[in-house]
Amino acid sequence: MPSGLKMLNLPDIPLRSPEYLKTWGSTMIIAPHQDDETLGCGGAITLLCRQQQPVSVLFVSDGTMSHPRSRKYPAEARRSLREEEARAALQTLGVRQDATFLRWPDTRVPMPDSEDFAAAVSGMRMHIQSQQPDTVLVPWRRDPHCDHRAAWQIVQAALQEVPGKVRVVEYPVWVWELAQPGDLPQPGEMQAWRLDIGKVLDVKRQAIAAYPSQTTRLIADDPEGFMLTPEVLAHFTQPYEVYLEPNDDVIP
């Protein structure tokens, strides 16, 4: 039985042109880890930048659990490395504004039942208010990673305390490989659509390559550490990206 978004018929999902991004206006991308922004929406980021629309990126976790057994790269070094990679990737995509790093512990981003959740929401609200985005991109609400789900919860709670209407667009990351049927959009819940990124796909590939700690065995002294396999990367190097929005929020 197929897994993840393989269970959906992608050719049936509407394909929108890059011009559709003009409906987003100024956009803030929320990434649980350093690389989620490029994998999930690197094409959109590049297109937004080329349209000269304001783009800001906020990373939620410190990303240090990708190689927890490495001695050559202890936690502080892993954090610095991943932040350097993130800045290089964003520069490749065309982002000129420096990213924000909240540095919550990787795999322990606060959920609503955590004592740190209120602090996480307060910090997120502050950053959203400082940027005043028209649109916020956040991981799919049931993406099968605890930090991705936590990021969605934090953003939702923060937006309840932000005056005005902010459009929320969700992007899948681990849904492709790990989702169970209950993780997928339910009938009538969301509208999925694809963004044509064919003209900037090469730029997105270059930005993905800016993360050698995640795409190669750069951190070789933790052989069981995380690495994006070619099979996983294939989901993110298509000439389109998939986005999900509540039906009422989608602009025709």
Describe, in plain words, how this protein is organized in 3D.
The model has no long low-confidence stretch (mean pLDDT 94). α4 links the parallel β5 and β6 (167-171). α1 (36-50) runs parallel beside α2. The strands form two sheets. A five-stranded parallel β-sheet has the order 4-3-2-5-6, sandwiched between helices. It has 252 residues and is an alpha/beta fold. Helix content is 33%, strand content 17%. It has helices at 36-50, 75-93, 117-131, 146-159, 175-178, 201-209, 212-215, 230-233, and strands at 15-16, 27-31, 55-61, 100-104, 135-139, 167-171, 190-196, 240-246.
Task: Set down the secondary structure blueprint.
Blueprint: E1 15-16, E2 27-31, H1 36-50, E3 55-61, H2 75-93, E4 100-104, H3 117-131, E5 135-139, H4 146-159, E6 167-171, H5 175-178, E7 190-196, H6 201-209, H7 212-215, H8 230-233, E8 240-246
Parallel strand pairs: 1-7, 2-3, 2-5, 3-4, 5-6
Antiparallel strand pairs: 7-8
Helix pairs in contact: 1-2, 1-6, 2-6, 3-4
